[in-house]
Amino acid sequence: MQREVDVIVVGGGPVGENAADRARAAGLEVVLVERELVGGECSYWACIPSKTLLRSAAALRAVQRVGGAREAVTGGLDVPAVLARRDYWVSDWSDQGGADWLESIGIGLERGHGRLDGARRVVVERTGGGEIVYLARHAVVVATGSDPVVPPIAGLAEARPWTSREATSVTEPPARLAIIGGGVVAVEMATAYAGFGTEVMVLARSGLLGGMEPFAGEAVAAGLRGLGASVRLGVQPTLVERRESGEVVITLDDGGSITADEVLVATGRKPRTERLGLETIGLEPGGWVDVDDTMLVTGAAGNDDRPWLYAVGDLNHRALLTHQGKYQARAAGDLIAARALGRPEQTNPWGAHVATADHSAVPQVVFAEPEAVSVGLTVAAAERAGLHVRAADVAFSSVSGAGILADDYEGRARLVVDEERGTVVGATFVGQDVAELLQSATIAIVGEVPIDRLWHAVPAFPTMSEVWLRLLEALGRPAAKDASEPESEEAA
């Protein structure tokens, strides 16, 4: 069977859905190919279930930090109720709602594994058997996401380790959980399971949250220990054995060992491109896919003469975050529609059809204990980029809104400022409920708002946003210029 449509989207997670939606909204005929569940990893095994598992214990801890409220709490966390709430949010792993939504907006759904077979050609191995070939009049968008990496540690694969999927879909938490890794998945799942009462052991060969400012990882390590978790840094497993009893014994490179009921591997991700058919269009299979700022795949056969192949989301390796993938998909979907319909292309920096913010303003929230959020560049990253920067650091103890939010509130905020341009290029907040501060920092960076102008963005009192005033005070107002003096030799 063979069928021709305007746009083919391979991958039905939130990123693929956004690309398909944008193209369809412009009037193009779109088919979406998905081999598992419409809604993808984020909806069923990542963002949604993980944050749902984390929320109940976080809310309980928040109540316990407020005098007058903590006295009313007489019981502990109801773990079965938490798991039931998670089941509700993942629709009991049914994607009927997603499929119905696609039908309601006129997007065709093809269930099966899609692979490229030359330019503008996608072969779908249907879930129910048989194949169908789709030909794209205008574009193919690949949004197949990524999978967890299981490192080559002796015995690890044979020990049947958990990945993020097993961790977020658990039906009964284990008594003991070992976690290999120190990134976002590792610390969030450590926080969630410690909240359940599981004995958690985190094994990280370096610090936690290495992509953030160092103080963020340090605070999260302290927070996990405060929840009763063990956090061991600077160690690596050398051998993993699943015993007949079901226990997992992990031997470490320092000569020690630990025993757990389950082991979660959270050491990174790899692209789902091994069976994508990249070799049929001149690209190497199995690796990350290179794109330009319009998400057009570089090096693909025919893409230079008549653009047709786009890659959005994890597999282009620009920012492995659902919200950034959706941002890329919106830009790509709109550009595909513009090119198909002969409309003007907006591919200038910050234009509607490019993902400029992927380079300078990627926001991220780690729902750990405490929350750690960041956007833009760290001090180290800014210096590596050749910027002359200055950092301002403030403790949240100086913010009235923080003290009202929780007794003895602990947290820290940092702004990274480009001295030459006088604008914010990075921000990090660590503490309870700091996630809601992130968008203001993102806007400041994307908008390149001058520090002088930020002084006039008055934070309401007494709220957490007052930290912005404290940060500006730490930076200090720039010295006033003498209007009688020339600013440069040219002015003179």
UniProtKB/TrEMBL annotation:
One Gene Ontology term from the biological process aspect of the record: 2-oxoglutarate metabolic process
CC cofactor: FAD
Binding site residues for FAD: 51, 114, 144-146, 314
Boundaries of every FAD/NAD(P)-binding domain copy: 6-322
InterPro entries named in the record: Class-I_Pyr_Nuc-Dis_Oxidored, FAD/NAD-bd_sf, FAD/NAD-binding_dom, FAD/NAD-linked_Rdtase_dimer_sf, Pyr_nuc-diS_OxRdtase, Pyr_nucl-diS_OxRdtase_dimer
Annotated disulfide bonds: 42-47
Pfam families: Pyr_redox_2, Pyr_redox_dim
An example Gene Ontology molecular-function term: dihydrolipoyl dehydrogenase (NADH) activity
Binding site for NAD(+): 181-188, 268
Cofactor binding note: Binds 1 FAD per subunit.
Origin: domain of life: Bacteria
Annotated Pyridine nucleotide-disulphide oxidoreductase dimerisation domain residues: 362-468
Keywords: FAD, Flavoprotein, NAD, Nucleotide-binding
Recorded family membership: Belongs to the class-I pyridine nucleotide-disulfide oxidoreductase family.
Name by which UniProt lists this protein: Pyridine nucleotide-disulfide oxidoreductase
